[in-house]
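Project standup — Tuesday

K.O.: blocked on the structure for the chain from last sprint. Re-posting the sequence here as requested.
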Amino acid sequence: MGDGDRRLSLWPHGLSHRRKRHPGIELCSTGRLDHLVVSALRHKPHPSHATVAQAVEWARRIGARHTWLTHIAHELGHEETNRALPDGIRLAYDGLSLPVSL
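H.V.: unblocked you, prediction finished:
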């Protein structure tokens, strides 16, 4: 796969926990991601999952065109949360499909 063909990025589960244990993990934009899928459990901090605010900050720093927040808790109202999120960042939902070119 050539550099111009990258469309999908896979993140290890528990990135927020790894960042707490290894604060040197750096996130940067490649400028080539169409879609980023990242865990965002809830607004309240959790010992091993990212908050919505953390996930939004990571998405901003990575710079994907579209970011989908997944592994969300039931306490996040879907429509209310989506209205509060920045452009290009939305909660994922059952049945969501994303185009992938390999």
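K.O.: great, moving the ticket to review. Residues 21 and 95 are 34 Å apart (CA to CA). The helical segments are 15-21, 52-62, 78-84.
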